[in-house]
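Quick log. Single chain, no ligands specified.
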Amino acid sequence: MKYFVGQVAKLLEVSVPALHYYESTGLLLRIERDKMGKRIYSQQDLEWIRMIVLMRKAGVSIEDIRSYVVLLKEGTKTINDRYELVKSYRDKMAEKIKDMQQSLSWIDAKIEFYQEWIKGTETKHTFEEEAKLFRDSIDIEAVQNRTI
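-> predicted structure:
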């Protein structure tokens, strides 16, 4: 099946300018054109774009995606390099998820705190006093020991 750019954008929930950008930066394989010069995407193109979109959602930079795409184009001889890259993307994403879970825990604790305050069962505090109450929700030592 063949798709035009608007259809692809809608199917994959990506903007038309993003699709054009992916093509202009070499992230996509050569996209076929019709007689009028309109892009025609194949099912393989859609799968390739889906990979790029998922990588972007995972926080992978365009430059890193480009490196991965270069390795893909080189074929099976790069399998070990691709494995290491994908593993590094996973590790970075796991760290982001951990950070987000920590932030979510802090927000949940704040919501509970404010619910109690609104009900009148919690003592009113200054911002500094509140901050002191919630320091335990952040593992300061883990943050300080993290390598960037």
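Residues 92-145 form one domain.
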